[in-house]
Design brief:
By secondary structure, the chain is α/β, with parallel strands linked by helices. It has a single domain, classed as Collagenase (Catalytic Domain) (3-Layer(aba) Sandwich). The protein is 37% helix and 20% strand. The chain contains 5 helices and 9 strands, in the order βαβββαβββββααα. The strands form 2 sheets. The chain has a 5-stranded mixed beta sheet with strand order 2-1-5-9-8, sandwiched between helices. The protein has a 4-stranded mixed beta sheet with strand order 3-4-6-7. A hairpin with a 2-residue loop joins strand 6 and strand 7. Helix 1 crosses helix 3. It is globular and about 45 Å long. The relative contact order is 0.15.
Length: 185
């Protein structure tokens, strides 16, 4: 079985981490292992933007992936950016080992609305599937209900389902089989 490590960076609630683990196990069949939480390095924060550099998170995830792990997913409550985008919900290496999800803009409170745990968990599941899908080689899907559909705003995240469409599920399954065969399992 393939291992995906969950790497909390900064303060991330246990129920959010459990939701991420369940989504990865249930939808992709990875065994999951939660790594110890680490503080977010102050050097990753951009004072002018008031956000955290997703690039720094990704470099750290790649460098800190345990040798036994096929994939590593970082999860943070920090608001993320890359230089060409004002924010992002997550980022991943296409056909790579590392992915990242931020809960900051998935929370109702970010927009001045009352908190909703149910909405947060649904959004976390969708973005986890989306970013992990990229690590399996999946690209953005035109099916607006597929978790692999591009989301540039919260309305698009909410419109998606927490599952892959048939075509994306088949491609992810083929990639998982090839990973297993490559390791001789």
């Amino acid at each position: 079985m393939k291992l995906a490590c969950i790497a909390p960076v900064g303060l991330v609630e246990d129920d959010v981490l459990a939701e991420v683990e369940m989504a990865i196990r249930d939808r992709f069949g990875f065994e999951t292992r939660r790594l110890p939480a680490r503080p977010t390095p102050a050097g990753w924060f951009d004072q002018a933007r008031g956000q955290w550099s997703a690039i720094e998170f990704m470099k750290d995830l790649v460098a800190s992936r345990p040798p036994a792990a096929t994939r590593i997913l970082g999860i943070t409550s920090g608001d993320l950016f890359i230089p060409m985008l004002s924010f992002l919900f997550g980022q991943a290496q296409l056909n790579g080992a590392a992915a990242l999800v931020s809960t900051a803009r998935l929370r109702q409170e970010f927009y001045g609305l009352p908190p909703s745990r149910d909405l947060l968990m649904a959004r976390v599941r969708k973005e986890t599937l989306h970013e992990m899908g990229h690590t399996l080689g999946l690209i953005h899907c035109p099916d607006r209900s597929c978790a692999m559909c591009l989301s540039t705003n919260l309305e698009q995240v909410d419109a998606k389902l927490d599952r892959l469409c048939r075509a994306c599920a088949a491609a992810a399954g083929a990639r998982m089989r090839s990973l297993t065969e490559a390791d001789g399992e």
